[in-house]
Amino acid sequence: MRKLSFLPVLVTTLAIAGCGGSGSSGDDGSSPLDNALRYLPADAPFAVAIDTDTEGEQAQNAEDLAEQFAFGDQLEEQLRGLAEDRAGKLEDIQAALGNEFVVGSTDARTFVDTPSGEDTAFVGAIQAKSQDALDKLIAGDKAKEDGEVDGAKLYKDDSGDSFAIDGDMLVVAGSKRELEDALATRDGDDAMTEEAFDAGTEGVSKDALLRVFVDVGGLLRASPDAKPALKSKWVSALRTAGIALTFQPEEVAIEVDMSTDPSDLTEADLPLAAGAAAPQPLDRDGDVNLALRDPAQVLEFAQATAKAIDPNGFSQFETGKQQIERRLGVDLDRDVIDQLDGDLAVSIGLDGKFGARAQLEDSAAFERTLVELEDVLPDVAEGVAGGSVGFAKPKAGEDFYAVATADGDQIVFGVVRDVFVISNDPKIAGTLADASARAVPGAAGALVLDANAERLAQLALEQAAGKGFGLGDRIVGAVGARPLDALLGSFEMTTQGLSGTVRVTTD
After folding, report:
1. Dihedrals φ, ψ of 470, to 5°?
2. Residue 450's closest CA among 275, 272, 285?
3. Could you write out the three-class secondary structure of 330-354?
4. pLDDT 10s per residue in the chain (507 long)?
5. Best CA proximity match to 271, nearest among 244, 222, 238, 240
6. Taking Cα atoms as reference points, which of 414, 417, 418, 400 lies closest to residue 362?
7. Quick check: 356 and 345 in contact, CB under 8 A?
8. Is 14 exposed, middle or buried (0-12, 13-18, 19+ CB in 10 A)?
9. Which residues pair with 251 in a beta bridge?
10. Which neighbouring-strand residues pair with 421?
11. Could you write out the DSSP letters of every residue in 362-408?
12. pTM for this model (two decimals)
């Protein structure tokens, strides 16, 4: 996608708003949002609306959060310089903002399958709060007039990119042709509207700093690579998704609400178990703790999806499974998968150590199944490891089977006090059966996340530092001593869709 002068300026100014910027106030106004959306076609595959009111509640909450970090002032200084280098005084930029800035793609097929080297089809628009400030931006950008379309003036900046001023509307696009098409779309009957955008994002916060509408079904149907996935009942039932980014005084959250057509779906067709009941992650010092209600649902969905996408390959898998079942006298679906209908809790450390605990329907029966599978478990382990492994059965009075590779990696697993335990560290495995669990506040649905946000951010910054990310070099280490606390999330499914929230909290 080619560079557009005003697009980075607007986005940069929004970032500054979260670091202490100030600007003119104004109402949120659904009419300016509707005006901006109408430059996109009604069947646009996605559209993003960004609140540019730097004195609004969302911007102020973002600013308060940014001020808690040591690098906040450095970030603001870099962003301010970027904006002013491109478009003149920051005050002129902010004076033109306040309404929603909309950017979206105009064509699903082009978006998912753009040939290498070609521009992605997109349009962006915003209704200026101040016509004078908008005029100053045009003058500051040293753009030259490049024609007129239906009363809108076209300009070309010093980089050769086109944009238009349509009254008090600033319109940008990937090319001059797309710009002209957007101006034609504005007054037609086939334009996106605020009503349609709100309907597509109904399940997420309307008062968000950023809202996204995605035509998930349209994108899947437009993508040649997605054709096999559409054989899945659930995937083919996907329709639209709404996403929102919100800021609270001590929290930033991403909300997701994805709709499905329920007419041909049952709860058995879903990737996750239906319902709001939330499992509890382990209460241990793992960097990432996950909890999943009814993991058997995930395994059954995976099998059903594999069968729909690749019937021949799945038939071969089934034949192999049946041979094992006849040889050992077990039913893998009944004796293994169906046993996992309780809660699965997984704890993962950034050092690579992990442990998992799964509730069992009948622990004694599952232990007998493990005994019956002892002859094939080494072969399964070698298939996973890609080489020879050592395999040890539990001795008298012990609980764990053990698998070890030639390079020293190991996995231990077994039934301990009525739960199945597996880990790559025997010490962790020995503590999992008795480890307590804790509820995540506000969690709803079959999948719950409780992670250490500070450690995850620290790792990300350390990886970015020294690899061409200059800001990462400056702020690495700052997060570790600053207020990031927890990364919390949960996801709930019904036949009507998926909803969930991921939150980062501060101390």
Report:
1. -55, -40
2. 285
3. CCHHHHCHHHCCCEEEEEECCCCCE
4. 333 444 444 444 444 333 333 333 334 335 799 999 999 999 999 999 998 887 788 878 887 777 776 555 554 555 455 445 544 455 566 666 778 999 999 988 888 776 655 566 789 999 988 787 777 777 766 678 888 888 899 988 777 778 899 988 989 888 888 999 999 998 888 999 999 999 999 999 999 999 999 999 999 999 988 999 999 999 999 999 999 999 998 899 999 999 999 999 999 999 999 999 999 999 987 789 999 999 999 999 999 999 999 999 999 989 988 988 898 889 999 999 999 989 999 999 988 999 999 999 999 999 999 999 988 888 888 887 778 889 999 988 889 999 998 888 899 999 999 999 999 999 999 999 999 999 999 999 999 999 998 888 877 777 766 555 554 444 444 444 457 889 999 999 999 999 999 999 987
5. 238
6. 418
7. yes
8. buried
9. 248, 505
10. 357, 414
11. -HHHHHHHHHHTTTTHHHHHHHHHTS-EEEEPPPTT---EEEEETTS
12. 0.85
Token duo for residue 183: 């101006």
Report CA dihedral (446, 449, 450, 454) to the nearest 10 degrees.
Answer: -170
Residues in the chain: 507
